[in-house]
């Protein structure tokens, strides 16, 4: 009998020492009865994120694993390294600031396990229907989602939502590049993977500050957007080769 967990919860975290203890306890409460692990990537934090994580682990959180970057490598690299280390069949991604609600994860798992789940389902993308961000952040997000949707046609109203449930094998087949986490729905569909959008809760940040500004997101996002658009236009996964006999 395998001891591998069914679910790996992946959390990139930079200077989130004040938010992680509560978030980790919420995850443990939400996933009672589940086979799971939690992998937190300390992305070059300058506060005591790493020491607090290790203290929580040694105080009786056996599902917790801690990875560390000596310097900040960004959210996409943190998620990718966590996915490589993960042992679960499915990956749930959460932001380290506590704004994503772990209580939404069981409902997403129920969809994956349900009899009506699409055969080729690889991704359930969270949709923050009631965002708890500043007006400028919400406006920038709406603009980016509309532009991305027109170019990539990924049918995703909120690709920036940190809460996603992804099949690990499907995720590791995706092309890796910095900021790729913003384009996971489009990249999954590029590989002919099925996707569903699921409404999720969103909460105000209780401590710390956002690590990215709206201008930073916009400048980097536009360059990446056209790169992903080019990549999708060059994709030939929807064609097959016939085996000849005789």
TrEMBL record:
Instruction: Identify the SUPFAM superfamilies for this entry.
Output: Nucleotide-diphospho-sugar transferases (SSF53448)
Top-level lineage group: Bacteria
Ranges for the Glycosyltransferase 2-like domain? 8-171
Q: Which keywords, in A-to-Z order, does the entry hold?
A: Cell membrane, Glycosyltransferase, Lipopolysaccharide biosynthesis, Membrane, Transferase, Transmembrane, Transmembrane helix
List the protein's name: Glycosyltransferase family 2 protein
């Amino acid at each position: 009998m395998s001891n591998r967990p069914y679910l790996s919860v992946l959390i990139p975290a930079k200077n989130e020492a004040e938010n992680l203890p509560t978030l980790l306890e919420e995850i443990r409460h939400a996933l009672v009865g589940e086979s799971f692990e939690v992998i937190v990537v300390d992305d070059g934090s300058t506060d005591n994120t790493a020491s607090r994580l290790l203290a929580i682990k040694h105080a009786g959180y056996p599902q917790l694993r801690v990875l560390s970057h000596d310097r900040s490598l960004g959210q996409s690299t943190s998620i990718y390294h966590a996915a490589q280390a993960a042992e679960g069949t499915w990956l749930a991604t959460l932001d380290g600031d506590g704004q994503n609600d772990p209580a939404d994860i069981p409902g997403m798992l129920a969809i994956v396990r349900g009899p009506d789940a699409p055969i080729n389902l690889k991704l359930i993308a969270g949709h923050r229907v009631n965002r708890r961000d500043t007006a400028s952040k919400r406006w920038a997000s709406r603009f980016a989602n509309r532009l991305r949707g027109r170019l990539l046609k990924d049918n995703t109203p909120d690709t920036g939502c940190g809460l996603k449930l992804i099949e690990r094998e499907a995720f590791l087949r995706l092309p890796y590049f910095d900021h790729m986490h913003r384009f996971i729905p489009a990249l999954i569909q590029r590989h002919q993977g099925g996707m569903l959008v699921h409404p999720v809760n969103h909460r105000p940040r209780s401590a710390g500050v956002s690590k990215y500004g709206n201008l930073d997101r916009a400048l980097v996002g536009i360059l990446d957007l056209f790169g992903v658009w080019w990549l999708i236009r060059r994709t030939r996964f929807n064609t097959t080769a016939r085996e000849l006999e005789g």
